[in-house]
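pasting for ref. prot 1 ->
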Amino acid sequence: MRCDYAKLGLLPAADRGWSDITELYVKKFDVPKAGERVFIQTRQMIGGWEDGFKTTYADVPQPERQES
Protein backbone atom coordinates (compact mmCIF):
# COMPACT_ATOMS: atom_id res chain seq x y z
CA MET A 1 0.00 0.00 0.00
CA ARG A 2 1.29 3.43 -0.92
CA CYS A 3 0.53 6.52 1.13
CA ASP A 4 1.24 10.07 -0.01
CA TYR A 5 1.34 12.69 2.70
CA ALA A 6 0.74 16.43 2.37
CA LYS A 7 1.66 19.08 4.89
CA LEU A 8 -1.39 20.39 6.74
CA GLY A 9 0.45 23.03 8.76
CA LEU A 10 1.42 23.66 12.34
CA LEU A 11 -0.69 22.08 15.03
CA PRO A 12 -3.19 24.42 16.68
CA ALA A 13 -2.78 25.10 20.38
CA ALA A 14 -3.51 22.06 22.51
CA ASP A 15 -6.55 21.87 24.78
CA ARG A 16 -6.02 19.42 27.66
CA GLY A 17 -3.18 17.79 25.71
CA TRP A 18 -5.04 17.42 22.38
CA SER A 19 -4.77 19.46 19.18
CA ASP A 20 -7.85 19.44 16.94
CA ILE A 21 -6.69 19.21 13.32
CA THR A 22 -10.17 18.74 11.84
CA GLU A 23 -10.30 22.20 10.23
CA LEU A 24 -6.80 21.82 8.73
CA TYR A 25 -7.60 18.37 7.35
CA VAL A 26 -11.00 19.28 5.87
CA LYS A 27 -9.58 22.45 4.28
CA LYS A 28 -6.91 20.36 2.51
CA PHE A 29 -8.80 17.14 1.68
CA ASP A 30 -12.54 17.73 2.30
CA VAL A 31 -14.59 15.61 4.72
CA PRO A 32 -13.50 11.95 4.60
CA LYS A 33 -16.11 9.35 3.69
CA ALA A 34 -17.43 6.83 6.19
CA GLY A 35 -15.36 3.66 6.13
CA GLU A 36 -12.18 5.37 4.90
CA ARG A 37 -8.96 5.13 6.88
CA VAL A 38 -7.18 8.43 7.52
CA PHE A 39 -3.44 8.48 8.18
CA ILE A 40 -1.69 11.39 9.91
CA GLN A 41 2.06 11.83 10.39
CA THR A 42 3.33 14.21 13.04
CA ARG A 43 6.83 15.46 13.76
CA GLN A 44 7.92 17.42 16.79
CA MET A 45 10.09 20.45 16.01
CA ILE A 46 11.55 22.55 18.82
CA GLY A 47 14.28 25.18 18.47
CA GLY A 48 15.69 23.70 15.25
CA TRP A 49 15.56 20.11 16.55
CA GLU A 50 13.29 17.60 14.80
CA ASP A 51 12.36 14.09 15.87
CA GLY A 52 11.23 11.30 13.55
CA PHE A 53 7.77 11.05 12.02
CA LYS A 54 5.08 9.28 14.01
CA THR A 55 2.18 7.78 12.06
CA THR A 56 -1.33 7.56 13.47
CA TYR A 57 -4.48 6.41 11.74
CA ALA A 58 -8.20 6.26 12.38
CA ASP A 59 -11.17 4.70 10.61
CA VAL A 60 -13.95 7.14 9.77
CA PRO A 61 -17.12 5.83 11.48
CA GLN A 62 -20.50 5.39 9.86
CA PRO A 63 -22.91 8.24 10.68
CA GLU A 64 -25.06 7.72 13.74
CA ARG A 65 -28.67 6.87 12.99
CA GLN A 66 -31.26 9.43 13.94
CA GLU A 67 -34.27 7.97 15.73
CA SER A 68 -37.62 9.30 14.49
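and prot 2 ->
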Amino acid sequence: MGMLRELVQRHGVATPANVVAARLRTHGWLLPTPTRGVWEFAPAAHAGPVGHANPTLALAAAVAADPALHAALTHTAAAWAHGYADRAPSRLDVAVPFESRAPAGLAHATHLTRFDAHLSPQRLKGVPVLAPASLLVHLAESPTAVRSWSTVVEWLPELAADLDRDALPTELEGRTVATRVRAGYLLSGLRPDLADLVRDDVGAVVRFGARSDAVRRHDSTWRVNDTALPSHPTTWAEPAA
Protein backbone atom coordinates (compact mmCIF):
# COMPACT_ATOMS: atom_id res chain seq x y z
CA MET A 1 0.00 0.00 0.00
CA GLY A 2 2.89 2.33 0.75
CA MET A 3 4.35 1.80 -2.71
CA LEU A 4 0.96 2.49 -4.28
CA ARG A 5 0.63 5.78 -2.37
CA GLU A 6 4.05 6.84 -3.65
CA LEU A 7 3.07 6.05 -7.24
CA VAL A 8 -0.21 7.97 -6.92
CA GLN A 9 1.58 11.04 -5.54
CA ARG A 10 4.45 10.86 -8.04
CA HIS A 11 2.12 10.87 -11.04
CA GLY A 12 -0.31 13.44 -9.64
CA VAL A 13 -3.29 11.10 -9.53
CA ALA A 14 -6.15 12.77 -7.64
CA THR A 15 -7.88 9.50 -6.74
CA PRO A 16 -7.01 8.32 -3.19
CA ALA A 17 -4.61 5.36 -3.07
CA ASN A 18 -7.11 3.13 -1.27
CA VAL A 19 -9.65 3.71 -4.04
CA VAL A 20 -7.01 2.94 -6.69
CA ALA A 21 -6.18 -0.29 -4.83
CA ALA A 22 -9.85 -1.28 -4.69
CA ARG A 23 -10.29 -0.70 -8.42
CA LEU A 24 -7.13 -2.64 -9.25
CA ARG A 25 -8.36 -5.55 -7.13
CA THR A 26 -11.79 -5.42 -8.79
CA HIS A 27 -10.21 -5.61 -12.24
CA GLY A 28 -7.89 -8.43 -11.25
CA TRP A 29 -4.59 -6.55 -11.32
CA LEU A 30 -3.90 -7.00 -7.62
CA LEU A 31 -4.17 -10.45 -6.07
CA PRO A 32 -4.51 -10.95 -2.30
CA THR A 33 -1.80 -12.31 -0.01
CA PRO A 34 -2.26 -13.40 3.62
CA THR A 35 -0.84 -10.03 4.79
CA ARG A 36 -3.17 -7.02 4.98
CA GLY A 37 -2.07 -4.17 2.70
CA VAL A 38 0.23 -6.35 0.58
CA TRP A 39 -0.83 -7.63 -2.83
CA GLU A 40 0.72 -9.53 -5.69
CA PHE A 41 0.73 -7.70 -9.02
CA ALA A 42 -1.09 -10.12 -11.34
CA PRO A 43 1.49 -10.39 -14.15
CA ALA A 44 4.00 -11.67 -11.59
CA ALA A 45 2.00 -14.88 -11.46
CA HIS A 46 3.74 -15.71 -14.71
CA ALA A 47 6.81 -13.47 -14.94
CA GLY A 48 7.76 -12.34 -11.43
CA PRO A 49 10.14 -13.99 -8.93
CA VAL A 50 7.29 -14.73 -6.51
CA GLY A 51 4.04 -15.76 -8.14
CA HIS A 52 0.72 -16.92 -6.71
CA ALA A 53 1.82 -20.56 -6.97
CA ASN A 54 5.10 -19.97 -5.13
CA PRO A 55 4.95 -21.67 -1.72
CA THR A 56 7.00 -18.87 -0.10
CA LEU A 57 4.44 -16.18 -0.97
CA ALA A 58 3.03 -15.86 2.57
CA LEU A 59 6.45 -15.25 4.12
CA ALA A 60 7.58 -13.01 1.24
CA ALA A 61 4.48 -10.84 1.71
CA ALA A 62 5.00 -10.58 5.47
CA VAL A 63 8.64 -9.55 5.04
CA ALA A 64 7.67 -7.04 2.35
CA ALA A 65 5.21 -5.44 4.75
CA ASP A 66 7.73 -5.41 7.62
CA PRO A 67 11.41 -5.69 6.58
CA ALA A 68 12.36 -5.78 10.28
CA LEU A 69 10.35 -8.96 10.82
CA HIS A 70 12.70 -11.68 12.04
CA ALA A 71 11.05 -14.72 10.50
CA ALA A 72 12.65 -17.56 8.55
CA LEU A 73 11.74 -20.90 7.04
CA THR A 74 12.50 -23.85 9.30
CA HIS A 75 11.99 -27.63 9.49
CA THR A 76 11.09 -29.28 6.18
CA ALA A 77 10.36 -25.93 4.50
CA ALA A 78 13.94 -24.86 5.23
CA ALA A 79 15.28 -28.25 4.14
CA TRP A 80 13.48 -27.78 0.82
CA ALA A 81 14.93 -24.29 0.38
CA HIS A 82 18.45 -25.62 1.05
CA GLY A 83 17.93 -28.51 -1.38
CA TYR A 84 17.91 -31.29 1.24
CA ALA A 85 14.21 -32.10 0.74
CA ASP A 86 12.65 -32.72 -2.68
CA ARG A 87 9.53 -30.62 -2.13
CA ALA A 88 8.08 -27.99 0.15
CA PRO A 89 5.39 -28.98 2.64
CA SER A 90 1.84 -27.91 1.81
CA ARG A 91 1.98 -25.58 4.82
CA LEU A 92 5.27 -23.78 5.35
CA ASP A 93 7.13 -24.05 8.67
CA VAL A 94 8.26 -20.59 9.82
CA ALA A 95 10.33 -19.74 12.90
CA VAL A 96 10.01 -16.38 14.65
CA PRO A 97 11.89 -15.21 17.78
CA PHE A 98 10.16 -15.66 21.13
CA GLU A 99 9.73 -11.92 21.72
CA SER A 100 8.53 -11.10 18.19
CA ARG A 101 4.91 -10.57 17.28
CA ALA A 102 3.99 -12.59 14.21
CA PRO A 103 1.58 -10.91 11.75
CA ALA A 104 -1.90 -12.43 11.78
CA GLY A 105 -1.73 -13.21 8.06
CA LEU A 106 1.52 -15.12 8.45
CA ALA A 107 0.23 -17.04 11.45
CA HIS A 108 -2.89 -17.99 9.50
CA ALA A 109 -1.06 -19.15 6.37
CA THR A 110 1.91 -20.98 7.89
CA HIS A 111 2.87 -23.27 10.76
CA LEU A 112 4.65 -20.98 13.21
CA THR A 113 7.23 -22.05 15.78
CA ARG A 114 9.41 -20.03 18.16
CA PHE A 115 13.19 -20.01 17.94
CA ASP A 116 15.96 -17.50 18.64
CA ALA A 117 18.72 -18.18 16.10
CA HIS A 118 22.27 -17.05 16.83
CA LEU A 119 23.38 -17.30 13.21
CA SER A 120 22.00 -14.98 10.55
CA PRO A 121 19.47 -16.61 8.22
CA GLN A 122 20.33 -17.23 4.60
CA ARG A 123 18.23 -15.86 1.74
CA LEU A 124 16.96 -18.69 -0.43
CA LYS A 125 13.87 -18.94 -2.65
CA GLY A 126 13.50 -15.19 -2.13
CA VAL A 127 12.94 -15.41 1.66
CA PRO A 128 14.98 -15.80 4.88
CA VAL A 129 15.83 -19.40 5.72
CA LEU A 130 17.48 -20.78 8.87
CA ALA A 131 21.14 -21.71 8.34
CA PRO A 132 21.85 -25.47 8.49
CA ALA A 133 23.31 -25.30 12.03
CA SER A 134 20.34 -23.22 13.21
CA LEU A 135 17.94 -25.72 11.68
CA LEU A 136 19.63 -28.65 13.46
CA VAL A 137 19.57 -26.83 16.80
CA HIS A 138 15.93 -25.86 16.34
CA LEU A 139 15.09 -29.54 15.89
CA ALA A 140 16.98 -30.34 19.09
CA GLU A 141 15.55 -27.45 21.10
CA SER A 142 11.88 -28.09 20.29
CA PRO A 143 11.41 -31.69 19.11
CA THR A 144 7.68 -31.56 19.89
CA ALA A 145 7.25 -28.71 17.36
CA VAL A 146 8.22 -31.04 14.50
CA ARG A 147 5.14 -32.23 12.66
CA SER A 148 6.70 -35.36 11.11
CA TRP A 149 9.97 -36.82 12.31
CA SER A 150 9.69 -39.54 9.66
CA THR A 151 9.94 -36.79 7.03
CA VAL A 152 12.85 -35.12 8.84
CA VAL A 153 14.79 -38.38 8.90
CA GLU A 154 14.61 -38.46 5.08
CA TRP A 155 16.60 -35.22 4.68
CA LEU A 156 18.56 -34.96 7.93
CA PRO A 157 21.55 -37.00 6.62
CA GLU A 158 22.19 -34.42 3.89
CA LEU A 159 21.89 -31.56 6.35
CA ALA A 160 24.27 -33.29 8.76
CA ALA A 161 26.83 -33.80 6.00
CA ASP A 162 26.63 -30.08 5.22
CA LEU A 163 27.12 -28.84 8.79
CA ASP A 164 30.09 -26.59 9.43
CA ARG A 165 32.24 -27.56 12.42
CA ASP A 166 32.54 -23.93 13.52
CA ALA A 167 28.92 -22.92 12.95
CA LEU A 168 27.34 -25.56 15.19
CA PRO A 169 29.15 -24.50 18.41
CA THR A 170 28.15 -20.90 17.69
CA GLU A 171 24.50 -21.86 17.42
CA LEU A 172 24.68 -24.09 20.51
CA GLU A 173 26.34 -21.44 22.67
CA GLY A 174 24.19 -20.54 25.66
CA ARG A 175 21.62 -23.27 24.96
CA THR A 176 20.31 -25.54 27.69
CA VAL A 177 22.07 -28.82 28.48
CA ALA A 178 18.99 -30.67 27.22
CA THR A 179 19.20 -28.96 23.82
CA ARG A 180 22.91 -29.67 23.50
CA VAL A 181 22.48 -33.34 24.44
CA ARG A 182 19.57 -33.78 22.03
CA ALA A 183 21.69 -32.24 19.26
CA GLY A 184 24.47 -34.72 20.02
CA TYR A 185 21.98 -37.58 20.03
CA LEU A 186 20.64 -36.55 16.61
CA LEU A 187 24.17 -36.41 15.18
CA SER A 188 25.52 -39.50 16.95
CA GLY A 189 25.36 -41.68 13.85
CA LEU A 190 25.66 -39.15 11.03
CA ARG A 191 28.31 -36.78 12.39
CA PRO A 192 30.02 -38.33 15.44
CA ASP A 193 32.75 -35.69 15.09
CA LEU A 194 30.19 -32.98 15.84
CA ALA A 195 28.36 -35.06 18.42
CA ASP A 196 31.60 -35.33 20.38
CA LEU A 197 31.61 -31.54 20.82
CA VAL A 198 28.78 -31.83 23.37
CA ARG A 199 29.45 -35.28 24.85
CA ASP A 200 30.73 -33.74 28.10
CA ASP A 201 27.26 -32.28 28.68
CA VAL A 202 25.74 -35.74 29.19
CA GLY A 203 24.49 -36.12 32.76
CA ALA A 204 20.91 -36.33 33.93
CA VAL A 205 18.42 -38.17 31.71
CA VAL A 206 17.03 -35.98 28.92
CA ARG A 207 13.70 -36.59 27.21
CA PHE A 208 13.46 -36.34 23.42
CA GLY A 209 9.80 -35.69 22.63
CA ALA A 210 6.57 -35.24 24.55
CA ARG A 211 6.51 -36.32 28.20
CA SER A 212 3.01 -37.72 27.73
CA ASP A 213 4.22 -40.23 25.08
CA ALA A 214 5.64 -43.63 25.89
CA VAL A 215 9.42 -44.05 25.70
CA ARG A 216 10.35 -45.80 22.46
CA ARG A 217 14.00 -46.34 23.36
CA HIS A 218 16.59 -45.36 25.95
CA ASP A 219 20.07 -44.45 24.80
CA SER A 220 22.48 -45.19 27.65
CA THR A 221 25.39 -43.33 26.01
CA TRP A 222 23.53 -40.05 25.69
CA ARG A 223 21.12 -40.78 28.56
CA VAL A 224 18.16 -39.90 26.35
CA ASN A 225 14.61 -41.21 26.73
CA ASP A 226 13.32 -41.00 23.16
CA THR A 227 9.57 -40.72 22.66
CA ALA A 228 9.57 -39.15 19.18
CA LEU A 229 12.04 -40.55 16.64
CA PRO A 230 10.92 -43.41 14.36
CA SER A 231 14.33 -45.14 14.71
CA HIS A 232 17.66 -44.70 16.45
CA PRO A 233 19.90 -41.98 14.94
CA THR A 234 22.77 -44.44 14.47
CA THR A 235 20.66 -46.35 11.92
CA TRP A 236 20.14 -43.39 9.60
CA ALA A 237 21.92 -43.67 6.28
CA GLU A 238 24.56 -41.17 5.28
CA PRO A 239 24.02 -39.46 1.90
CA ALA A 240 25.75 -41.03 -1.08
CA ALA A 241 29.12 -39.49 -1.93
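DSSP finds ten helices and ten strands in the chain.
The CA atoms of residues 189 and 234 lie 4 Å apart.
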